[in-house]
Amino acid sequence: MICYIMCILLWIAYLWLDCMVVAYAFEPRKDSVRQAGIILGLMAAQLPVAALKFLFNDNVLVRYGTMIAVGIVTVAYAAVFLKGTFGQKVLFMVCEYLIAMLAEMLSIGILNKYMEQKPQLSYYTPTMVLLLSVVLTVTAIFFLIFLVVWKKIVEKESFDVSIIIVFSVFPVSQLLMITAINEQVFQNLTLHTGCILTAAILGSVADGVLLYTLLRQQQLQELKLRLSEVQSTWEIAENHYHEIENRREEFAKIRHDMRNQQMVLQELLHQGEYEKAEKMLETLTDTVAATTEYLYCGDPVFNAIMGETERACREHKIDFQYDLEIPQKLKLDPVAVCSILSNLTRNAVAAAEMTERQEAFLSVKAAVKGDYLHICVENSRAKKLPGRPRRKGYGLEILHDLVERNHGQIDVQPGEGSFRVDVTVENF
After folding, report:
1. Domain containing 287: what range?
2. In a domain, 228, yes or no
3. In a structure prediction context, what are the per-residue pLDDT tens digits for the chain, which is 428 residues long?
4. Burial of 313 per CB tally in 10 Å (0-12, 13-18, 19+)
5. Sequence-separated (6 or more) residues with CB below 8 Å from residue 207
6. What is the pTM of this model?
7. HSE of 247 in the Cβ direction (CA atoms, 13 Å)?
C-alpha cells in the first residue's frame, strides 16, 4: 500500500511537470493571468483522462487511447488560454510525446538490472516506485532542453542556456546514485528500502520544483528587460515632449520680437534707408522660415511629431501621406500622445527606409470619435533583409504596454510588403 501511495504522488508530480512545460512554452492570452493559474487549470482539465491512464495502465488500448485524449485536451486548453497558432500547439504536443517516450525508454535502460528481477511490474512494488522516480527525473531534464530549444527556434525568444547546466547537476547525480544501488535492497520491503524510495521521490519532486524556480527566474529576467525598455522609451518620449514645448515657447518669443523689428523696418523705409531695410528684411524672412510650424491638426504635440516625421520621410525619399481629423487639442496626456505617436512613426520610418525607394511609403491617419482617439499607421517593409541577424525586438511590446497603460487597444496587421498598426485610446 505504501508503494501504491508513492506511485500516486509521483504520478501527480509528473502531471504537474507536463502542465508546467506547456504553460511556459506559450504566453497567456491575458497578461493578468499568471503561469501558476495556467498550470493548475491545465492539470484540472487533464485529471479525469490522466486518472484513467493511471488506473488502467496495463491495458494497452486504454493506455494509448488516454494518451491521445490527454493531448487533445491539452491542445484545446492551450488554444483557448495561450497565445500561438494552433499548428504550433499540435507540433509542441507531438514533440513532447516523443520526448516522453524517449525518457521512458532511457529510464528502463538505466534500471535494466531491476527490470530483469521483476518482469511483472505493479504499483505495489518498490521497483515501480523507483522506475517512476527515474522517469520523472529523466523527463524533467529532456523537457527543459526541449523548452529551451522551442523558445529559441520557434518562439524566437532569448533563453539563458546556462540554466540547463545549473539544473542538470542535481538530477544527473540522482541517476548516478540510483544506478549504484544494489538490487538486493528490493527483495524485501524493509526500512532501508523505504528510505531509498522516499529519497528517490523527494529528489524527483525537488527536480520539478527546481525546474519551476529556474523557469520563473528566467521569466522575471525577461520581464525586467521589457520593463527597462518601456521605461527608457517613456523617458525619451517625455524628453521629446519637453523639447517640443520649449521650442514652441522660444518661437513665441521670436515672433514677439519680430513685431518690434517690423516697426524698425517701417521707420527705415520712411527715412529712405533702403539698403539697411533690405538686409533687415532678408534676416526677418529667414527667421520666419525657421519658425514656421506646419499645421496638420488642432493638437500641438501631434503637429510637432508629424512635422518631424515628414522631414524624415523627405530625407529618406519615402512617400508620406496623412489624413487627420483632430480639430482641437487632445484631452489625452500630451506625454502619452507623444509616446504612442512617436513610437508608431519612428518604427514605421525605420521599416519603410529598408524598402526600395519607389515602393517606400508611410501613411498616418488619425481621428477623434467621441471619447476615443483612433490612429492608423501603415508603412512599406522589405520582404527579406539579407545579412541582418534576426533578433527579438521589443518595439511592438512597448507599444502594447503604452496603449494598455492608456486604457486602449492595439491591432497589428502584417501584410505582404506592408505593415499596419491600429491604435485606439481614451481621450478624456
Report:
1. 233-291
2. no
3. 778 888 888 889 889 889 988 988 888 888 778 888 898 999 999 999 888 888 887 777 887 888 889 889 999 999 999 988 888 899 999 999 899 888 888 888 877 766 665 556 777 777 788 888 888 888 888 888 888 888 777 766 666 667 777 777 777 777 777 766 655 555 555 666 667 677 777 777 787 787 778 777 777 776 676 666 666 666 666 666 676 667 667 666 766 676 677 777 777 777 877 777 777 777 766 666 555 555 789 888 888 889 889 989 999 999 999 999 999 999 998 878 888 898 899 889 999 998 887 889 999 999 999 999 999 999 998 876 544 444 344 567 778 877 888 889 999 998 888 999 999 999 98
4. buried
5. 136, 137, 140, 167, 170, 171, 174
6. 0.54
7. 15
Task: Count CA atoms within 13 Å of residue 146 on its CB side.
Answer: 24
Residues 31, 175: one domain?
A: yes
* The domain boundary residue, chosen from 177, 197, 222: 222
* Residue pair 215/24 in contact by the 8 Å Cβ criterion: yes
